[in-house]
Amino acid sequence: MVKRLCKQWFPIEYPDVWYEDITANPRFYALAATFQNKIVGLLVAETKPLTKMNKEDQDLLTGQGEVGYILSLGVSKDHRRNGVASLLLDNYLNLLTTHQVSAVKAVLLHVLTSNEAAIKFYEKRNFSRHAFLPYYYNIKGRPKDGFSYVRYINGGHAPWSLLDYMHHFATSWYIVEVCSWPLRVACKLWCFLAHAATAVMTHRCS
């Protein structure tokens, strides 16, 4: 049943051992939604240390931590747009934010760049695009591009850029009462430059 549904949901050919693992191996988290005793939705995920993630995903976090990696999330065609995928995802996120698994600092997934419905779904639920992955997938012998999407939880966050550090120090210094006039001027100048640089970068990216 699971194998048949996954073939319907995803254009990727998984080996038979993958289906055996997700139903029997305790390292996988698998949650199914059922209707009238039939599986209509499925989420499969696993938790990995950041150091065990693929090379292209190891820049997710500042410092070390664990990552919740969603391998698959799908809903049968007849039951889409009924909140099934949201229910499965919310259940998984609630699990990861409990005290027992608070070491998980980010939730990661990969998606085809052409899967606009999935991209909109995840972006609506506070996932942000992390990286563009050219030729990440092999679909029926043809390479296809992918995106990685991430949502930070339990205090996790992406590594800081130079602009992040500039903004942090500028705003921190700005609120400190400085008695020396030269230092006050230097502080305001630093704050101005940091905000200007952030505005320039934002304009370029928009």
What does this structure look like?
The protein has helices at 2-9, 16-24, 84-96, 116-124, 162-175, 181-205; strands spanning 28-35, 38-49, 66-75, 104-112, 128-139, 142-152. Helix 5 (162-175) packs antiparallel against helix 6 (181-205). The termini are far apart. It is of the alpha+beta class. Mean pLDDT is 82; it is low at 200-206. The protein has a six-stranded mixed beta sheet with strand order 1-2-3-4-6-5, with helices on both faces. It is globular and about 75 Å long. It contains six helices and six strands; from the N terminus they run ααβββαβαββαα. The chain is 38% helix and 30% strand. Strand 3, helix 3 (84-96) and strand 4 (104-112) form a beta-alpha-beta unit.
Features:
disordered C terminus, alpha+beta, single chain, 206 residues, globular
Our estimate of the beta-strand percent is: 25-35%
Helix/strand/pairing category = alpha+beta
Distance between the termini: 45 Å
- Which outline best applies? globular
Poorly predicted segments? 200-206
Radius of gyration: 22 Å
Strand element count: 6
**Main β-sheet description:** 6 strands, mixed
The largest sheet has its strands arranged as 1-2-3-4-6-5
Helix content estimate: 25-40%
Name the helix and strand elements from N-terminus to C-terminus, one letter apiece. Answer: HHEEEHEHEEHH
- The number of distinct helices, counting runs of at least 4 residues, comes to 6
Mean pLDDT: 82
